[in-house]
Amino acid sequence: MTEQTMIRKMRSRDPAGLEALMDRYIPYVSAVVWNLLRFSMQPEDAEEVVSDVFLAAWNQAKDLQSGKVKAWLAAVARNKAKSKLRSMAKDLPLEEDLLELPGRDSPETELTQTEERFLVNWAVNDLPEPDKEIFLRHYYHAQTVREISEEMALKESTIKTKLRRGRAKLKETLTRWGAI
Question: Most-buried pick from 105, 134, 160, 175 (CB within 10 A)?
């Protein structure tokens, strides 16, 4: 079924259009959502976000345009995933898997990698508030400076300064601990 046909069916409230859309795009939407949420919540929560994306497509079928459906779904998926993170309203721990360090393949370096991940995690968690929250929002939840500025009611220049200082403090701390 073509995108145009799917959209037409959805606009006429025919569930076959939504089913076809889901069959085609669930793997893609799931990947977008999972890339943002993978270490911060259970898989069931991510599945709920994916369902919410397709519910939005059903409810807003009039906004869908043939040839632009994939981009529309990706934008909605990112926004819904970020909203889910915000609704959790808690500090999310940095998971070890999130801090994969490139270029380390041999088994004998596993202990070193674990220690480095621990030190990075410790250094990030050692940042003062709101610097820590800004750092996590930007680097781990992929929020833009503008989004952080709006949500935290801070100037964009303040956000940029805190990110720069956070990076410098991380580098200083990790250098002092011998991690870099």
Answer: 134
Catalogue all structural domains in the chain, each as residue range(s) with its CATH number. 3-88 (1.10.1740.10), 96-176 (1.10.10.10)
Tokens 């999972």 correspond to 34
What one-letter code names the amino acid at 171?
K
Q: What is the reported pTM? A: 0.49
Q: What is the mean pLDDT of residues 142-157?
A: 90
Asked if omega into 93 is within 30° of 0 (cis), the reply is no
CB-based contact 3:69 (threshold 8 Å): yes
d(CA 82, CA 141): 7
Contact (Cβ atoms closer than 8 angstroms) between residue 166 and residue 135: yes
3-state SS string over 12-70?
A: CCCHHHHHHHHHHHHHHHHHHHHHHHCCCCCHHHHHHHHHHHHHHHHHCHHHCCCCCHH
Q: Residue 3's Cα: distance from chain center in Å?
A: 27
Contact indicator for 38, 99 with CB cutoff of 8 Å: no
Closest to 92 measured CA to CA, from 150, 146, 140? 140
Between 33 and 96, the more confident residue is 33
Instruction: Provide the token pair at 26.
Output: 């669930």
Around 100, how many Cα atoms within 13 Å sit in the side-chain half-sphere? 7
